[in-house]
Amino acid sequence: MSTAPDTAPDEPTNPVPQPVPHTTPVTVPVPAPVTALADGFGARWTAGILAAFLPGGDGDGRAAELGRLDRLAGDGDFGTNITSALGRARQAVEAEPPRDYRGWLTAVSRGFLGTGGTSGPLFGMFFRDLARCCDAGEPTLAELSAGLGTAVATVQRYGRAEVGHKTMVDALVPAARTLEAEVAAGTAAAEALARTADAAVEGARGTAALVARRGRASYVGDVARGVLDPGAAAAAIVLQAAAAAQSGDPVDTGWVSG
Q1: What torsion do the CA atoms of 36, 40, 44, 47 make, to the nearest 10 degrees?
Q2: For residue range 168-195, what is the model confidence (pLDDT) as tens digits?
């Protein structure tokens, strides 16, 4: 006679755990926060640039000092060219004030593109790329960083200059790298732009120790050693004006002649 139960035994109340298949964790990148620039940033940046370079305004009017530096190391036309370029930009914005960031920076670009010499077209293309970093309104900090990177690449491509050649590139490359890093770190806009300007100033001041490899200053060799490159100084002042446009602080350009 069979002793097997008529029904199957109940399932165990505490089943043996089954091994979980090994999986590789997926790292999801965290996007950088969107940091908006202040309302009217483009207008304030342009006004700061005009005041910093042109005489008779609220700023330092550094065009003449940059011309003096260029006479020591080049052909002496830089101060005149930057005054002419920004004078045209000022006339344009006074005649018809732009409506947004892109319009303000485009006015500065066109002022330089109508200027002779080597620096005029380079600065013109530089500001053109900055103007194009956003379609409407004010750019975000990330958009400005991307625009600065594009602008610097354009200057290097057409100017055929690298860091260490004693040109505006010595100020612009470290500035662009700094701003890119600050955007990735989520730094607030005012602080990020201040650090960007500081990097540009440091790069510009470093040109005094260099022997020029590009531009007119390359013709005089060691004669230009000890003299700031005026293009690098101008580029740094432009980025100082950007920082001031966000923070509201004044632009201090005393380092140019200090």
Answers
A1: 140
A2: 999 999 999 999 999 999 999 999 999 9
Strand partners, 36: 140
Which pTM does this prediction carry? 0.83
Q: How far is CA 92 from CA 84, 86, 88, 237, in A?
A: 12, 10, 6, 21
Q: Is 60 exposed, middle or buried (0-12, 13-18, 19+ CB in 10 A)?
A: buried
Determine phi and psi for 36, rounding to 5 degrees.
-80, 145
Cα separation, 144 vs 35, in Å, equals: 10
Give the C-alpha separation, 253 to 148, whole Å. 21
Nearest to 204 by CA among 81, 55, 69, 111: 69
The owner of tokens 């432009």 is 238
